[in-house]
Amino acid sequence: MTSQDFEYLRRLLKERSGLALAADKQYLLETRLLPVARRVGAANLSELVQKLRAPGAEKLATDVVEAMMTNETFFFRDKIPFELFRDTIMPALREARASRRRIRIWCAAASSGQEPYSLAMILKEMSGSLAGWRVDILATDLSTEMLEKAKTGVYSQFEVQRGLPIHFLLKYFTQVGDMWQIAADLRAMVEFRPLNLLHPFSHLGAFDVVFCRNVLIYFDQPTKMDVLARIARVTEPDGYLVLGAAETVVGLTDVFKPCDDRRGLYRPCAPASAPRLRLAQPAAADATPVAVVP
């Protein structure tokens, strides 16, 4: 692979996914993209780049981007964010949303679904205190392949052993051959949609809670600032943002502020000049509260 080919692939990934690939990561391209090259009859990455430059290569470009994505995820990853969701975020929102009895949650970069399903299990456990409430979970990801896997809710023995408490496995999953499938009512609690965080997402509406964990670390600073500014505009003024353990807004942006003694938890503090979407009240036809947590 020539230096020109390497720079072409770097630009492609940056423009389409936000991935800022360092100059010393050529080996990563070779590791992840050689299988893609072989599938389309290219002997090496230089030939792959030739195919990408040719007309009608949109599908190939999508395959290249998806092959470079890090889809590492597991149930209840890092534990603390889910404890904060259960013990801090949800109690505060139940009090703040008592009049409208509706909460919207967005899991950005949801990969194969373990994060939103972890939240769904927590909500299911809290169903007694959420009777008559409508709680929506929207999960988005750049990779359509990961989203299709997430929709099925089917996971290997290895995947369910990573972070998932055994009593949740027995309570919420059914064994199908050597795989495990999460219960249908939990699958119904999560809506999966394709979304690129580099593209506009105001059409999604406003959210009370946004989980955007372990994705900003792959962006350069201007991209991080842009994404955070746009997340702030779709987060309710008294809502919450949850970032990954290695991520922070400190020294990066002033649209969010950290919550004291709550690692990874942030509240909006955007200036008045930055308009924010507001969560609309349900229309008259939806006036009867819907319990999404049976």
Could you please describe the fold and organization of this structure?
The chain has eleven helices and ten strands. The longest helix has 17 residues. The chain has a seven-stranded mixed sheet, with helices on both faces. It has a three-stranded antiparallel sheet with strand order 3-5-4. It starts with a helix and ends in a 26-residue tail after the last strand. It has two domains: about 70 residues, Chemotaxis Receptor Methyltransferase Cher, domain 1 (Orthogonal Bundle); about 190 residues, Rossmann fold (3-Layer(aba) Sandwich). It has about 290 residues and is α/β, with parallel strands linked by helices. The radius of gyration is 20 Å and the shape is globular.
Summarize the SSE layout with pairings.
Layout: H1 3-17, H2 26-39, H3 45-53, H4 58-68, H5 80-96, E1 102-107, H6 114-125, E2 134-141, H7 144-152, E3 154-156, H8 157-160, H9 166-172, E4 173-176, E5 179-182, H10 184-187, E6 190-194, E7 207-212, H11 221-233, E8 235-243, E9 256-258, E10 265-268
Helix pairs in contact: 1-4, 2-4
SSE-based structural type = alpha/beta
CATH third-level topology of the largest domain: Rossmann fold
Estimated helix fraction: 25-40%
Specify the overall morphology.
globular
Strand order of the largest sheet: 6-2-1-7-8-10-9
| Domains, number | 2
What letter string, H or E per element, gives the SSE order?
Answer: HHHHHEHEHEHHEEHEEHEEE
The number of helices is 11
What integer is the average pLDDT? 89
Report the β-strand fraction as a percent range: 15-25%
Largest sheet: 7 strands, mixed
Which superfamily, in CATH terms, is the homologous superfamily of the largest domain? Answer: Vaccinia Virus protein VP39
Instruction: Report the CATH architecture of the largest domain.
Output: 3-Layer(aba) Sandwich
The CATH class of the largest domain is identified as: Alpha Beta
Q: Low-confidence parts, pLDDT < 50 over ≥5 residues?
A: 279-291
> How many strand units?
10
Distance between the termini: 55 Å
Say what oligomer this is.
Answer: single chain
Rg result: 20 Å
